[in-house]
Amino acid sequence: MSRYSVVSLDMFQTLVNIEGRREHVWRPILQQHYSEERALELGSLLLRSYYETAAEVREKGSFWTSKEIYSRGFRQVFRQHGVDFDDMQAVDILFAQHRLSALYEDTERFMEKVCQDYQVCIVSDTDTLMLPEFYLNYPVTLFTSEKYRSYKNDSRNLMFHEVVTHYGAAPEQIIHIGDTPSDVLGAARAGITSCWINRTGACWEHTVKPDYTVASLDECYGLL
Fold it and tell me: What is the DSSP letter of 160?
């Protein structure tokens, strides 16, 4: 008998890969000024702005949607680098490309298997409009930061507590699989077993360690 009754999953860089959509985000924004190098530079600045703003909002105990955070980020990047483009239109492009993120090679077979044997949910620090709709093909419950106005591992850690409450399961009967420190640290704070999916060979740099580390979803079967 499995030790877990619930499998909780992050979305981006766990089930789907957003990295391949960079050109499709920045080409319509930069138009004739587009280059791969410029897209990489501005994309990195946008992501840095996102994390800085999210951290600032967390520290204040407040909440902004992903749309609000990215809108601010685009405004900053456009102003600093002389890009003449509407920030809200840029957010619409970004969200559309998130929805088109490619599934990893192991995602569909993993979802087919775990949805047969476990209760499954997706826990994502995003607005619902950003999510690829493939998850609608599976009997999963969705938890988004937009819906609960909370981020994974923020001061309230509401996202993971809501997962525990929703299923009425003991935290140790839930395993959460995700690629970020917030996935691991937030799950650990809620008493949920944490599994860090490290598809890129990164180094873990936090005092609290994940209960498990895997390089792919295929490696998770033996843990369940």
Answer: H
Say how far apart CA 166 and CA 142 lie, in whole Å: 11
Q: Identify the domain containing residue 163 by its residue range.
A: 6-16+103-223
CA dist list (Å): 137 to 28, 115, 141: 31, 11, 12
Query: How many beta carbons lie within 10 A of that of residue 174, not counting itself?
Result: 24
Positive/negative CA dihedral, 166, 168, 172, 174: negative
Write down the pTM of the prediction.
0.95
Q: Return d(Cα 30, Cα 219) in angstroms, integer.
A: 40
The verdict on 109 and 198 lying in the same domain is yes
pLDDT tens sequence across 157-193: 999 999 999 999 999 999 999 999 999 999 999 999 9
Closest CA to 121 of 56, 169, 64: 169
Domain shared by 39 and 85, yes or no: yes
pLDDT tens digits along 118-129: 999 999 999 999
Dihedral angle, C-alpha 110, 183, 22, 218, nearest 10 °: -20
